[in-house]
Design brief:
This protein is an alpha/beta fold. The chain has two domains: 206 residues, Rossmann fold; 158 residues, P-loop containing nucleotide triphosphate hydrolases (Rossmann fold, 3-Layer(aba) Sandwich). The chain has 14 helices and 14 strands. The strands form two sheets. Strands 3-4-2-5-6-1-7 form a seven-stranded parallel beta sheet, sandwiched between helices. The chain has a seven-stranded parallel beta sheet with strand order 10-11-9-12-13-8-14, with helices on both faces. Strand 10, helix 12 and strand 11 form a beta-alpha-beta unit. Helix 3 packs across helix 4. The radius of gyration is 21 Å and the shape is globular.
Length: 379
């Protein structure tokens, strides 16, 4: 199938072809026509499946068809859980809008950046990409209004609807006009998502792209290891592999800093990203990693969702995430768009039960190895 069947206009087909997009992914093939038709949509598909483009492209097409007068108030609101995902969605919007005959104005709003600078940059804006907290800050300052929003997108919708964001999202929803198009996209389906779908969506198109283990391009492997040998084993595996880029997940900023310290002392070119860093530092570090200037990036679950690092070959779980969904999002940073990837998890024996729960919830059985016989001296 080609993008011709999605209902996109020639200008977008040309932009896709010039950027090397040969054919739509399953989520794009199903979602783009539904969004163009004005339907509410709930799309669930694995990470790396092209969900962002599946709503950005038809939204841009819809804005092009409207009056050439720019919006003083945003017509589209895209809510995301993290600053990094806000930047990435904004990047996709720019990628597909830079050569359009009519300029589409978009802005990413999130904490950790100057609120005054964001207020000054708002101006005439067609699309706002925002984290809920910063959006509410700007609404309280009367820096923008949401009364003209005709399309609402919740990206990583399951995350947006959990206890950490639900109150903020509910407040934002109360400020929107009742008649609008609602688009929910997520890599995982949760009870929260099913519940909000019933309340928020009107006669929706439900798209669930089934994912089977046979289709996975990710080779998953686990190592049993003691607490004392976990750090040396990580450094051993990184040094012994030929992977040019490695993403390491830990559960806290403190552990991330500790891992980075040991990696650096052992001559491994590494950096870290976590919530206690400034947004500018996080953005620069992520850009350096994407550009191939860093061998290892150590992070928390901050980078588990929505972040696209092209051809990332390997992900490590230094510590297990709390939920099976977070495990799927973590390992989904590799093996994207059909490229092969490796996901390695380091497991202490007391974590085995939790790891079995993760495997059961995700319908997987992961090959396990013992690290006892590995000579980790000097690592």
């Amino acid at each position: 199938m080609s993008f011709l069947s999605t209902g996109l206009s020639d200008i977008f087909l040309s932009a896709l072809a010039s950027q090397g997009y040969a054919e739509p992914t399953p989520i794009q093939l199903a979602a783009i026509p539904a969004v163009i038709s004005g339907k509410d949509v709930m799309g669930v598909a694995q990470t790396g499946s092209g969900k962002t483009a599946s709503y950005v492209l038809p939204i841009l097409q819809g804005l092009l068809k409207e009056s050439s007068a720019k919006h003083r108030e945003p017509a589209t609101l895209i809510l995301v859980p993290t600053r990094e995902l806000a930047d990435q969605v904004q990047e996709v919007i720019r990628e597909f809008s830079e050569k359009l005959p009519q300029r589409i104005h978009s802005i990413a709003l999130y904490g950790g950046a100057s609120v005054n600078a964001q207020m000054q940059a708002l101006g005439k804006t067609d699309i706002v990409v925002a984290t809920p907290g910063r959006l509410l800050d700007l609404l309280d300052k009367n820096a923008l209004k949401l009364s003209s929003v005709s399309t609402l997108v919740l990206d990583e919708a399951d995350k947006m609807l959990n206890l950490g964001f639900k109150e903020e999202v509910d407040k934002i929803l109360s400020l929107l006009q009742k008649k609008r198009q609602n688009l929910l996209f997520s890599a995982t389906l949760s009870p929260d998502l099913t519940a909000i779908q019933q309340v928020l969506l009107v006669d929706p198109v439900i798209i669930k792209i089934e994912f089977t283990e046979e289709e996975s391009t990710i080779n998953e492997l686990g190592y049993f290891v003691t607490k004392e040998r976990k750090g040396p084993l990580l450094r051993y595996l990184i040094k012994k592999s030929e992977h040019k880029q490695v993403l390491v997940f830990a559960s806290s900023a403190k552990t991330v800093d500790s891992i980075l310290n040991k990696l650096s002392k052992n001559g491994i070119n590494a950096a870290q990203i976590h919530s206690q860093m400034s947004q500018g530092a996080r953005r620069e570090t992520l850009r350096s990693f994407k550009d191939g200037n860093l061998h290892v990036l150590v992070t928390t679950d901050l980078l588990a969702r929505g972040i696209d690092i092209e051809f990332l070959p390997c992900v490590f779980n230094y510590e297990l995430p709390r939920s099976p969904k977070d495990y799927i999002h973590r390992i989904g940073r590799t093996g994207r768009a059909g490229s092969p990837g490796e996901a390695i998890t380091l497991i202490k024996m007391e974590e085995l039960h939790h790891f079995r729960v993760i495997q059961k919830k995700n319908g997987k059985k992961i090959q396990m190895k013992h690290s006892d016989e590995m000579d980790l001296h000097g690592y």
